[in-house]
Write a structure and sequence with these properties.
The chain is mainly α. It folds into two domains: 89 residues, Endonuclease Iii, domain 2 (Orthogonal Bundle); 99 residues, Endonuclease III, domain 1. The protein contains twelve helices and no strands. Helix 1 packs across helix 2 and helix 8 crosses helix 9. The chain is globular and about 55 Å long.
């Protein structure tokens, strides 16, 4: 089973047009952001590893770690599976992330088969691996598989952006935002991309923080 994917800026623009017509809050966001940019990254083991490396560290730190892993040839599933913990430690991984990287490499996930699975099955497959939570799996579905209707409701920036765009009294919980996002189907990935872009604009302008 394959699902429609977001491949071009035109795909994003079509989703934004639908969302703007359906939701005044998202219309305000779109007016502030200008054109919404397509966000894609190549699918596969390295994409999930990159997301894991980005957990609870700065973008700069995660980028540096991934560069060291790439330089060491440790962004391939077979290479990580056969490496020593010291090899990963030398690239800057913490003990916890060493465990997660090895668990992912040894998980047996067939990354080539994931594009043929529905969103919920991809998320179930990924979250069975220690170190991969709902957010990480949803990010993979959204930006590596390019699925148009997934939403990472646990993301704090999305919660804050939704609070601002919809004049909410407080930042919505993950559950509340997931329910709110149901109205944005079948373009929830595009809604998330719009909200992230809006958050970046407002944060830059006003210095808000998560």
């Amino acid at each position: 089973m394959t699902t429609a994917i977001l491949n071009t800026d035109a795909d994003i623009a079509r989703g934004v047009a639908w969302l703007v017509s359906a939701d005044p809050g998202l219309a305000r966001a779109a007016a502030a952001t200008g054109p919404v940019r397509l966000r894609r990254r190549p699918p596969g083991f390295a994409a999930v590893l990159t997301t894991i490396m980005g957990q609870q560290v700065s973008v700069a730190s995660a980028t540096a770690i991934m560069q060291r892993l790439e330089d060491a040839g440790l962004t391939r599933q077979d290479r990580v599976r056969g490496c020593r913990e010291d090899d990963l430690r030398a690239c800057g991984l913490s003990r916890q992330k060493i465990r997660y990287a090895l668990e992912l490499a040894e998980s047996g996930i067939d990354f080539d088969a994931l594009p043929d699975l529905p969103d919920d099955q991809v998320i179930k497959t990924l979250t069975a691996v220690p170190g991969i939570g709902q957010w990480t799996a949803e990010i993979y579905v959204m930006f590596s598989l390019g699925r148009p209707d997934t939403f990472a409701a646990g993301d704090l920036a999305l919660q804050e952006a939704a609070r601002l765009t919809h004049d909410l009294p407080a930042r919505p919980t993950e559950k509340a935002l997931r329910q709110m996002a149901e109205a944005w189907a079948p373009w929830r990935t595009v809604a998330a991309t719009l909200l992230w872009q809006y958050y970046a604009v407002v944060k830059s302008r006003e210095g808000i923080s998560t």
